[in-house]
Amino acid sequence: xxxxxxTSDLSREEAELVLDVTQQMADAVTGREVPKxxxxxxxxxxxxxYEDSTRTRTSFETAAKRLSADVVNFAAKTSSVNKxxxxxxxxxxxQAMGADAVVIRHPAAGAPQRLTEWLxxxxxxxxxxxxxxxxxxxxDAYTMRRRLGGVEGRTVAIVGDILHSRVxxxxxxxxxxxxxxxxxxxxxxxxxxxxxxxxxxxxxxxDASLKGADAVMMLRVQRERQNAAFFPTxxxxxxxxxxxxxxLALLPDHAIVMHPGPMNRGMEIAATVADSPRATITEQVTxxxxxxxxxxxxxxxxxxxx
Amino acid sequence: MVSPALRQNEEDPSGKHILAAxxxxxxxxxxxxxxxxxxxxAPDTMLLGIPTRGVALAGRLADRIRRFADLDVPAGTLDITxxxxxxxxxxxxxxxxxxxxxxxxxxxxxxxxxxxxxxxRTVRAALNALYDLGRPASVQLAILVDRGHxxxxxxADYVGKNIPTARDExxxxxxTEYDGFDAVVLTGGRER
Amino acid sequence: xxDTLIKGADLLGRGRADVLxxxxxxxxxxxxxAPGARVVDADGLVLLPGLVDLHTHLRExxxxxxxxxxxxxxxxAKGGYTAVCAMANSYPVADTAGVVEQVAALxxxxxxxxxxxxxAVSVGLEGKRLAEIGAMAHSAAAVRMFSDDxxxxxxxxxxRRALEYVKTFGGLVAQHAEEPRLTEGAQMNEGAVSAxxxxxxxxxxxxxxxxxxxVLLAEYTGARVHFCHVSTARSVxxxxxxxxxxxxxxxxxxxxxxxxxxESARTYDPVYKVNPPLRRDADVAVLxxxxxxxxxxxxxxxxxxxxxxxxxxxxxxxxxxxxGLETALSISVLALGGPTEVDWDLLAERTSRTxxxxxxxxxxxxxxxPGAEANLTLVDPAASxxxxxxxxxxxxxxxxxxxxxxxxxxxxxxLRGRATVLNGTIAEEIQ
Lengths: 306, 192, 431
Description:
The structure holds three protein chains of three kinds. Chain B is an alpha/beta fold.
């Protein structure tokens, strides 16, 4: 594993290894006098964020620092998409600065893959356009492992704007690879065309899809999508695809409610549901740090980097 | 992604046997006695094995101390993977668990236990790992085999056997817990 | 000018003959000897009418860092072309007599291929007001074909008016069929691959809807419509039905749509980004069949050179388009059955005679018969070549075929009897 671009690149064994190491990272740091490990001392991790995402950037930064890496936050307010420095020139700059790993968040799908052509260091995709967000999927799988005892054989409903969701895509590949039954639920306008080949069940009726689900993953839906006719109104969306208390009661007792954040309370998820003990939303944030530690460790100690 | 380093070492069994099972048993008896003697009855003492085979050795020493002196010296595990100085160069290593006896290492006499003492780098890593977990009162080192070629100013407090070796030789410690039998085997190296 | 004797060529696969070129025209064919003439040994080679491209972006004026008329026509000659139609999306846009005359003059000065400018349908390609179509038609460039290529003439009223207007002088509108609302932000073919890659999809229906509408407008106005770069199987169906009813429509297909598919986008390498996008295997198969059958009238390159910075970037930031002139012949041969199976006469029909007829280039697309202008291409059907971007004559390097080995090489190209390419090498001084 040289880079982490998407979960589709991982074999099942590799994915399991990441989750195992995630557990080990959590155990290694939790309750210690010095919550810091020296594994990546002297290595430089660059956070290259072309989209504002304080939560993801902070999570990667914390993970890298817990492993004693030097972290550089490269301010990339503009990209070649909006006439700033070209991604290639930025990559050459980071290369010249000796970055061992670059964590990239970019509005253009495929930007991390392009970056691997211009850089020697490891590239970690922290979200590219509507393509992939592998560490989010890994932390979701890890959360299920912790809360449900595993992923294999569990049924997971992913609900909402699948079309524009990199989280949904990366989760579909990862969870199905780990043996889960994945259901995609949303209005037909927000499901991609031609996904008959995906290893999922597709549904348009949320109530029906919640029955027997072990986990339900609510995706953020932007209100502005109503302007592009993806759905008539925010109210109608919430009525058809929002997770409220009535729907929560349709889930089995052990089922968990997940959300990658940031949430639109009252839109895809009711405030009372988001705050219920069955919601794993803050736990997901905590687990994100362990997953990112595991990924950084695995990528930077594989004997392939400089 | 799973590298060969993660798999079990499978050395050539035709190597030269340096120690047999009963030799190892006698050596551990002696070290257990030495620990009791040198620590004056081992108060506030714990044994921390360094994975993989140090863990089994620490357990065996704790058993012997219990048998010889009716004393419970707790044994635990100290994983040093993340503290190694060759992470950058060598293929991926899986992390092992670190399991400390209840109460942690603060103000304890910690005896690190490993199978082979060679360059001293492992012990260096273990000391760093230990000090990120707390502040022991003192640290000692118990070792089954010292094969020389130190690269750091480190020596063991308890040594099972000194075995002079060439750098291109390999000392393999076999323990029943992992290998089904006890032995120390010398392999590789040029004809002597 | 010295006479040229092409010795022993296979004329369009019909049989061996010698061809004598004198004063830019073909003087004689048969078994000939011509003392004093320059002899081109064509043993084992096939002689074709010079290729004609209905769809070339020469980038001059405005983007001379990507291509110029000089470099673009050299690339054309290298690819076996003797005439190219230059698309209107230059800077400034070719929407006035002045710009089209300038482009035609640059073509004459370069001398490697005839450059026939295409005029814009609307001012600035903005789709709002008609450009001065009449002025361009009556200019020295004698523009007959009009296109907003790169943009669809979306407004049905504007399209209707343009058709009524060009009809008066036998002109035609070449439509870039793309319903703009259905392709907002689109990056690649909409389908299984775009769903996985998370790239916004360009649905086939966006092309088909405009083609269907324009077929109806062509029938209603009685004017000629030509469809640029047809890329989907359903488009072929619509055009086939239209032709069966007698509608005055023609269609072109690009080499890349005859060979490549949307699977290429998995690399996220924008060298595969093109508009309309690469489609599915099934579309490629239908387009090949339609080209052989004649539902698709012609191969057109949509040669679209881009400067490195416009391709060495994120997929979404990259400009669409790929080089085509130097590879089109090889890929046309592949699409029509390969070098041993291809019907050379059919190849000439689709790459030379029909495009020349559509564009109104009477001196091109003529079989090598006495009296015809000597616009000819001599190809080696047994040879193959590997595409090396740095070796291309185009100023740009954005070929999707880098590293591929393709059949058939161009040995010589003659423009009015002058060799623009000889022994597979571009002539530095044309004589």
